[in-house]
């Protein structure tokens, strides 16, 4: 799963997007909204 996230992040970088465009940094995708653990969430952000 993290490999897929890395591929999507690499594609975003090739398009000139930055970390601020990471879908996991949107309020609706943060642990307080999704219920996932902060550790799992930060792994996704780091992978992207």
Overall spatial form: globular
N-to-C series of helices and strands: HHH
Enumerate the spans where pLDDT stays under 50 for 5 or more consecutive residues: none
Beginning-to-end CA distance, first to last residue: 11 Å
The chain-level mean pLDDT equals 96
Give the biggest beta sheet.
none
InterPro entries: CrpP-rel
What keywords describe this structure?
globular; 56% helix; single chain; CrpP-rel; 48 residues; 3 helices; mainly alpha
What report would you give on this structure?
The chain has one domain (2-47). The protein is globular and about 30 Å long. The model has no long low-confidence stretch (mean pLDDT 96). 4% of the residues are buried. The chain has 48 residues and is mainly α. It has helices at 2-14, 31-34, 38-47. It starts with a helix and ends with a helix.
């Amino acid at each position: 799963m993290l490999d897929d996230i890395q591929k999507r992040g690499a594609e975003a970088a090739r398009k000139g997007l930055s970390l601020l465009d990471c879908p996991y940094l949107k309020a609706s995708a943060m642990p307080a909204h999704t219920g996932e653990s902060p550790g799992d969430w930060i792994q996704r952000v780091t992978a992207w």
